[in-house]
Amino acid sequence: MTDLTDQPVLVERADAVATVTLNRPDRHNALTRELKEALVEALQDVAADDDVRAVVLTGAGSSFCVGQDLGEHAAALEADASTAFDTVPEHYSPIVTALATMPKPVVAAVNGTCVGAGLGFALACDLRFFADGATLGTAFSAIGLTCDSGLASTLPRAVGEARARQLVLLGRNFTPDEAVGWGIAGEVVPAEEVLAAATKTASRLAAGPTLAYAESKRLLAVGLDRTLADTLGEEAVAQARCGLTQDHRGAVTAFLNREKPTFSGQ
């Protein structure tokens, strides 16, 4: 019988929430090719599963994710430096794309150290809960690299361009309290409460209007890049699609009857 605890990524489904866990706790969930491939598959699977209406992303042990496993990376450089970074388009970009475009909410339970690509993954999620005392950082400049995992887009959107330049170029670590104060939306909770808090919020979202959430994610993802006229047009189309859902019609009826709406995600 296969020991699931040895798998690089664990997926647990409970009701309408799927919890995806990076599972290399002894290496602080450093990203090997095996883990990255498993994570791409897991995220694509839960994204396509209509029974899953919200997702939690977290790490096993005391860290969320410390980014690329540098031992494996050093071996890839030694083997062929010209192909060592193929992992960016093959793995990192699909992971972030899956998190950001999944047609359902994704909540990051940042249970500990979260740097490099790990920070990119957390910022690609819709909501975040941070363990107090966790270490956050970009880390790339410390090893002579630039951003990946979407940080060149998500970080300046969250904290502003000037602070993003500071965090990337100087590469200093920062705290969850600093992150929240700078605009990286999230809630700081005791470390032992992070997963429970994220799961509670994911359960709330899983009971909500899933299709409307999906439309909101699509609109917000490009809202800063569109003209007002284009935004207004896209909002009109998205509202019309939401208006055809059972969730919308049922919620209007419930409101008129002074009842609490129940959403089926349809």
Descriptive report:
- By secondary structure, the protein is an alpha/beta fold.
- The chain folds into 2 domains: 4-206, Alpha-Beta Complex (2-enoyl-CoA Hydratase, Chain A, domain 1), CATH 3.90.226.10; 210-256, Orthogonal Bundle (Lyase 2-enoyl-coa Hydratase, Chain  A, domain 2).
- The protein has 11 helices and 9 strands.
- It has helices spanning 33-48, 70-80, 87-101, 117-124, 151-159, 161-170, 176-182, 194-206, 210-222, 228-243, 246-256, and strands at 9-14, 17-22, 54-59, 63-65, 106-110, 113-115, 127-131, 136-137, 187-189.
- The strands form 2 sheets. The protein has a 6-stranded mixed β-sheet, sandwiched between helices. It has a 3-stranded parallel β-sheet with strand order 4-6-8.
- Strand 2, helix 1 (33-48) and strand 3 (54-59) form a beta-alpha-beta unit.
- Helix 3 (87-101) packs parallel to helix 4 (117-124) and helix 5 crosses helix 6 (161-170).
- The radius of gyration is 19 Å and the shape is globular.
Summary tags:
Lyase 2-enoyl-coa Hydratase, Chain  A, domain 2, alpha/beta, 15% strand, 11 helices
H and E order: EEHEEHHEEHEEHHHEHHHH
Q: What would the principal axes of the Cα set say about the shape?
A: globular
Please give the alpha-carbon distance between the first and last residues: 38 Å
Portion of residues in beta strands equals 5-15%
Fold-level CATH name of the largest domain: 2-enoyl-CoA Hydratase, Chain A, domain 1
Class based on secondary structure composition and strand pairing: alpha/beta
Query: What assembly state would you assign to the polypeptide chains in this entry?
Result: single chain
